[in-house]
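[Meeting: bench + compute handoff]

Bench side (C.D.) handed over the final construct sequence. Compute side (W.E.) agreed to return the predicted structure before the next meeting so the bench team could plan truncations. Sequence as handed over:
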Amino acid sequence: MTAETHSQIANFIWSICNLLRGPYKRNEYRKVILPLTVLRRFDCILAPTKAQVLKEHAAIKTKGENIVRHRLSQITKVPFYNLSKFTMAKPEKGSGLNGLLDDPNHLAPNLNSYINGFSPNVRAIMERFKFGEQVAYMAEKDLLYLVIKAFTDPKIDLSPDRVDPMQMGYVFEELIRIGAEQSNEEAGEHFTPREVIKLMVNLLLSPEKDLARSHVVKTIYDPACGTGGMLSVSEKYIRDLNADAQPKLFGQDWNDEAWAVCKSDMLIKGEDADNIILGDTFTKDGFDRASDGKKWTFDYMLANPPFGVEWKQQQKYIEHEKDTLGFSGRFGAGTPRVNDGALLFLQHMIAKMRAPQDGGSRLAIVFNGSPLFTGDAGGGESEIRRWIIENDWLEAIVALPEQLFYNTGISTYLWVLTNRKEKPCKGKVQLIDARQFWVQMEKSLGNKRRRIGDPSDKEKDPDHIGEITKIFGKFKNGEMRTFTEDDPITHQPIQRQRVVSKIFDNEDFGYHKITVERPLRLNFQASAERLARLDDESGFKNLATSAKRDSAVREKEIEAGKQRQEEIRKLLRAFGKATKEKLFKDRKEFLTTLRDVDRARDVRLSAPELKAVLAALGERDETAEICRDKDGQPEPDADLRDTETVPLKESIEEYFKREVLPHVPDAWIDHSKTKVGYEIPLNRHFYRYEPPRPLEVIETDIKRLEDDIMKMLKEVTA
């Protein structure tokens, strides 16, 4: 069967949606089409053995469930069966079976009975599709008979002798793609554009050297599998490379419909559908431990987790795992901000990497820009990046073109990680700027206005996937490519060379964040103006407050506090008079003088009271003496505190001498606050200065736009 035939079958199936117009919206068609395609395929598969299965079941139905399931699956030669007496298509005469269309008046209950006759694995899929609701709705709208009749049309012959499992998988994938396009606003949540998946798979698998081995077995895992697109494309890549290969697919998703689609796809292709788990990857790791008690690991992993999705509802579980298991669990490196859990998926995948001595693993994941740089040194995101880079797992990051995805037009990046780098790549990271590798869509689909060129999909496309893969494989610093761009002045297409690949040492992304302190310098004066500020200090105001519930006691405490406040005011007025409101530029001298007056008047300022007095009477003064602690060390001025970012490869002291001391000679580094951070400023590394357009060119453009607007206004008012 050719690719064209796959499309023809899928398009014919989708044409049945014409029957649904009116009662159903376009983005709801898949709720009918996908589950009915699954049922039709299964009906065709089971038709030759249906009568034998029913006969065998009648003989062994009293046996244990496992025995029954095993025996019936032996007859069907697939991991599912159906025990109802109904078939979707018209049965052969004398078979003892009933066609669903034979009794139009009872079609809905008969169809439900037919579905309930399936083995538990298929029933679970239909339950997650919520197809029972669609059966009732179509019956209510008098659509059910027409739709079932259309699906049993001889043109939709999905029997295995006509459509083999792999080919059927292509048909189903095409239906998923069409359905995603029909609901493009929400498609991006569960559907990654095929050209993006192909690129991911190419980058992930093209460097591998053992995929051509006979009967090679490789495991592929997607922790946010959605409808299973990444798993399907990975499988096809390996089988195209080696027809005897045996890829094993594993996935997990918490969306019911996406899981049902993925699991259906696996069953349709003859894969082990039990390897597709329903549930929250963070709170219910479907692949924590294998049956032998060993941790699950995989050869390859791919994921496109949701962008910017908060993990607040899973926070308690994740934090508990982090605190109790540390690096023995999945989140030992730390946790990101609660409003973006993307890096949690990456940590989850890293935890499932196979040990290097056992062959190692490689993984690819799609992120927005946030994981590249968000988070301060010592914070969650930075510590996760540090853990990844210092373990030398990060292989490459590819900046993708904008407007590739259905539900967002923002910049996206593809991360490639492995724990078995080749020798030339050890200790290094490749950054690839692929933002110019795109073709304009003939028709926009939501926010998707561009696609990566793929000649296998569109014959006239440039081979962007192949080109990016070559750049990745060459691992060359300063690799150049020529692109056609619009000249910002003439607006005419011109040829420009751009750097598309740069190689960095791991340490190039690290930095020390140092805290630069400057000494506290204050003057003090007991002037009337500064004394008035005392009333604003919390340590002074709180003297005349009380938390007691008893009103009498409370009033007594407040009154005593007011009296204490007045004592302090008198003390300070007396101090000001005795010193003639002298401006003290040495805090030590000020305190000594104040203490003498305090003792003479027997006020005895407490520590909180003295703190309030110093805050009210003190002002910053660059000409004053440095305030020192009891050990004679300079006290830092919090208002003058600053931070500096020092590249990890550079000496902190040399940087400080060169960049800081010439400007603030009295500064010092508080080494106790020094932190290590990691960020990947990809855009900055590929920044290319573009001179601004001449003013006259801008004025010409503005004049042209004004003329166009005036012309349109005249047409409207004419």
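W.E. noted at the follow-up: Residues 185-190 have pLDDT under 50 and may be disordered. C.D. will use this when planning the next construct.
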